[in-house]
Amino acid sequence: MVQVEREENAAFLKKSITHLEAHGFEKIKADLEGYDIPKSYLKKGSDTKITPDIVATKNGKKYYFEISLKSSRPLLLKSKWLFLDTLSRMKSNHFKIITTKGHYKFTDNMLEDINLSDKTPIKI
Fold first, then answer.
1. Would you write out the chain's pLDDT as a tens digit for each of its 124 residues?
2. Is 0.85 surpassed by the pTM of this model?
3. What is the distance between the alpha carbons of residues 120 and 50, in angstroms, rounded to a whole number?
4. Cα torsion at 31, 75, 43, 86 (round to 10°)?
5. CA 10 centroid distance within chain
6. Could you give phi then psi for residue 87, rounded to 5 degrees?
7. Handedness of CA 60, 42, 48, 115 (dihedral sign)
8. C-alpha–C-alpha distance, residues 92 and 100, integer Å
């Protein structure tokens, strides 16, 4: 999700972290009270910071998780997803999308627009 929408969706972020913990993920980092903040990346040529919503490890592998909720800034979200997908492939990590009821169609359309339709969102 985009940084400005993070406060509005803190409850779903917490629900997603609980889901990941139940599925064996460890060393969870998220921009939420009680968790370490994930590393931010600065976009060249602008002051835009890209921070994954959740970073976790499982079986020694690093996973980047992005929360997909309807957004008023889809272009920024698309560029963030493309960057995180590229970053994860460069470092042999994994990139996953988490979504919920009412946001499936939005998520599928976004993934199709940026040619990531091979990604299957985690539905909570």
1. 776 677 778 889 999 999 999 999 999 999 888 999 999 998 888 888 899 999 999 999 999 999 999 888 888 899 999 999 999 999 999 999 999 999 999 999 999 999 988 889 999 9
2. yes
3. 22
4. 80
5. 13
6. -60, -45
7. negative
8. 27
